[in-house]
Amino acid sequence: MTLVSNAERSGHASVEDATGLHRAIDWKGAFWIASGVPALVLISIGGMGATAGKLAFLVWALSVLMGFVQAYSYAEIAGLFANKSGGAAVYGAAAWLRYSKLTAPLSVWCNWYAWSPVLSLGCAVAAGYILNAVAPLPVFTPESPEVIAWLKMAAHAAAIDGKSAEEAAKVAIAALTEAGTPALRAFKLVSFSFFGLANIEIGATFFIGAVLMLVAFAIQHRGILGTARVQMWIGLLVVVPMLIVGVVPFLNGSVHAANFSPLLPPAGSWSNGGWTQFFGALFIAGWSTYAFETAVCYTREFKNPGSDTKKSIISAGLLCVVLYALVAATFQGYLGLDGMTAPDIVDGTGVAAAMGNMVGSGSPIITHLLEMMMILALILAIMMAMAGSSRTLYQGGVDGWLPKFLAHTNAHGAPTRAMWTDLVFNLGLLTFAASDATAYYLILSISNVGYMLFIFLNLQATWIHRIDSPDIPRPYRAPNWLVAFNALLGFFNLLLMGAGAKVWGNPNALWYGLAFALVIIPVFLYRHYVQDKGRFPDHMLVDLDLKGQDLGARRAGLLPYLTLAAGAAVVLFGHFYFQLPG
């Protein structure tokens, strides 16, 4: 093993300070960047109600508690790497590198393609809110004068011939809504079917979403300090209203206990199908509730990484535990199952109106303020996702796992090429996310397959680092029992993935996600063996006191390989044993 002196490690850091990311924030800056995570509950709260039924509030609470417990393992491994950015995936990948050159880039890639779609999904929902504000759809009821007049017109007699009064009113409402839809909403540049998976429409939602992405890019172009400052002010405008929404309905009597029972999945019993629905709900919830681990993406940009790392992730985790539990409970307690599964709650565009009814008795002023809060919340999530995912790409480029062109920063220390990569990739995804709910949840489930793979690899990386690098100073050391418990949670997450991916959008979502994960293998092989001639950068493992091509001793022996084999078995068992209700 080649040892590196503290002076060498410091020298390496100082070089990067001048040419790469800048040490400009403390734990509070990372906390405010991660404050966009609670807003993710508003993206999928309706879909969760449709999948989990009256178990939805329990799913959110259990999932965020699991994410909080897992954060302690991330805090330990992040503390090992004062000179890296990119988050837990990068820190965990360093543990797997000794045992497989392919597993390390897989971890980084899976983390990125799990995080990156937040941009497109968030922009799609935010664009829907903006369209509702500037070009609202007309609203008609069977009693509306326009509907009554339409039904009396002789020209429409054939359209309603033989139909009941209720059916005829629906026909009239559909016709009047189509005729009264503003031109902006009806605009479509192109529309087509994408291999039968989704109907793609490039219209107003796409273009508004694209503008929001460019705004997020422009703000982050100024570097991490500027991003953190903007996030703090937006975060305050989002977190405070979410706390109000999470507390006030309990005080004004809007929460009804009957909406929480019986504790059964939509299948009606805890049968195989019922457990599949429950596991599918936990699977997709983790995409949101685990996401505050993004707080450790900025270790390389902390002024004092030794202490800031743990503070940032634990504080962000506590915020998420409170907001996820409260907001999920108030929504379900107020809306009930029927309200949670309404189309405008499932697609996200009616969430603000529901919150306005919960805390402001439907006051138009309060509802409009909450609509603005929703747009800001989604922008907060978009900026958070771009900040974290771009740094994952950047560090992958620096460490020799991802394409070399990603290892670039501008004068402000922003990884601009990685940000452009995020932007272009998500403009493509936005064509799906802005089209229909089926495509939206298909993207969500595929990206979450990558997230669960990353979670599993990194929860195992904690004990691998302990075995292989026992003498490296750890600013924070998690309790032994918690490291072991989190390793088991890694397997449980794989079970959720195997059983639950099929619940969302497509029965083959698991295989699509796994196939997309493997895309990185030829990319890595080209980078490592063609561009870098089979050598990793000398600085890659400097934080582990290793230099050059010395990856260190494999003290864990066969354990990592047995762990991977056991993980694959759990996924296959979950997929084939658990099936949706007939």
Automatic annotation (TrEMBL):
Any Pfam family hit: AA_permease_2
Keywords: Cell membrane, Membrane, Transmembrane, Transmembrane helix
Main location: membrane
Transmembrane residue ranges: 29-48, 55-75, 112-131, 194-218, 230-252, 272-292, 313-335, 365-387, 479-497, 509-526, 558-578
Subcellular location: Cell membrane
Coiled coil location: none
Membrane topology annotation: Multi-pass membrane protein
Keyword Chloroplast: no
PANTHER family in the cross-refs: AMINO ACID TRANSPORTER-RELATED, INNER MEMBRANE TRANSPORT PROTEIN YBAT
Name recorded for this polypeptide: APC family permease
